Structure to design on (227 residues):
C-alpha cells in the first residue's frame, strides 16, 4: 500500500524558513517523480514543485510564486522528499501535500498534508 | 504560464442529475489534462488523467473528454458521495496549473 506522510509544518514568522519532509513507502520511491501541492485556507489547489528521478538527473520544476525561495529535494536512500522553504510570506500559509506519480497517471497518491502558517 | 478557466465556479444539482463541468486552456495542451475531486477534510483524489482515462478505482459514472483547449468532466448520474469540489489540472507544460474549482452542491 502506498503511503505518504508529511511532517515539518508549523507556525513561522514572515521571512523565516521551514523544511517539510515526506516519508514514502509501498512503492519504489527512487523510480518515480514527486510533487508538492498546496492549498491555502478556503482557496483552490496550487502545484508547487516537482523533482524527477535519478534517471532524469533529479531535475526540478517550480511554480513562479515559489521560484528562488523554495527548494525541492529527495533522498532515495531514505525514501524521503523534502521542501526547503525560505523567505516565507503570509501568502505561503497553506496545507502542503506531497504527491507521487506511481501508476503512470498524474498525482496518483497524496499524503494527508502538513499545515504551514506564516504569521507574526 | 498557461491559464486554466473552469466553469461554473459553483452549481446546484440533485441526486441522479447529469453534471457537466468545463475547463478551458488558453493554449493548446493536447490531452494533458486531469480532473480531481476534493471533499472537506479529505485529500484530493485523481479521477481522470490524459483527458479521458479513468483512474483505477474511480466509478464509471465519471468521464472526461476534450483535447486542445476545451475539456469536460461529466458525472452521468450524480450520487450523494459526489457532492464535492472538482478541479482540472493542465500538465502539458511547467508550471502545472489548476483550474479555479467547481463546487457541486445539493439543490
Amino acid at each position: 500500500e502506498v503511503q505518504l506522510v508529511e511532517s515539518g509544518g508549523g507556525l513561522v514568522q514572515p521571512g523565516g524558513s521551514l523544511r517539510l519532509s515526506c516519508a514514502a513507502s509501498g512503492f519504489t520511491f527512487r523510480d518515480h517523480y514527486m510533487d508538492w501541492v498546496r492549498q491555502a485556507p478556503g482557496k483552490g489547489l496550487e502545484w508547487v514543485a516537482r523533482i524527477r528521478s535519478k534517471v532524469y538527473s533529479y531535475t526540478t520544476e517550480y511554480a513562479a510564486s515559489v521560484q528562488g525561495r523554495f527548494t525541492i529535494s529527495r533522498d532515495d536512500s531514505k525514501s524521503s522528499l523534502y521542501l526547503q522553504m525560505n523567505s516565507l510570506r503570509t501568502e505561503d500559509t497553506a496545507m502542503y501535500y506531497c504527491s507521487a506519480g506511481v501508476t503512470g497517471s498524474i498525482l496518483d497518491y497524496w499524503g494527508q498534508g502538513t499545515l504551514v502558517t506564516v504569521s507574526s | 504560464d498557461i491559464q486554466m478557466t473552469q466553469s461554473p465556479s459553483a452549481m446546484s444539482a440533485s441526486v441522479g442529475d447529469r453534471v457537466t463541468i468545463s475547463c478551458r486552456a488558453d493554449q493548446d495542451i493536447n490531452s494533458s489534462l486531469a480532473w480531481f475531486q476534493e471533499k472537506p477534510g479529505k485529500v484530493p483524489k485523481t479521477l481522470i488523467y490524459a483527458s479521458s482515462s479513468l483512474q483505477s478505482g474511480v466509478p464509471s459514472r465519471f468521464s472526461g473528454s476534450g483535447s486542445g483547449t476545451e475539456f469536460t468532466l461529466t458525472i452521468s448520474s450524480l450520487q450523494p458521495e459526489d457532492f464535492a469540489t472538482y478541479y482540472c489540472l493542465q500538465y502539458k507544460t511547467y508550471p502545472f496549473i489548476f483550474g479555479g474549482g467547481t463546487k457541486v452542491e445539493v439543490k
Summary: Chain A has a mean pLDDT of 96. The longest strand of chain A covers residues 18-25. The interface with chain B takes residues 37, 44-47, 50, 61-64, 97, 103, 105-108, 110-113 of chain A (CB under 8 Å).
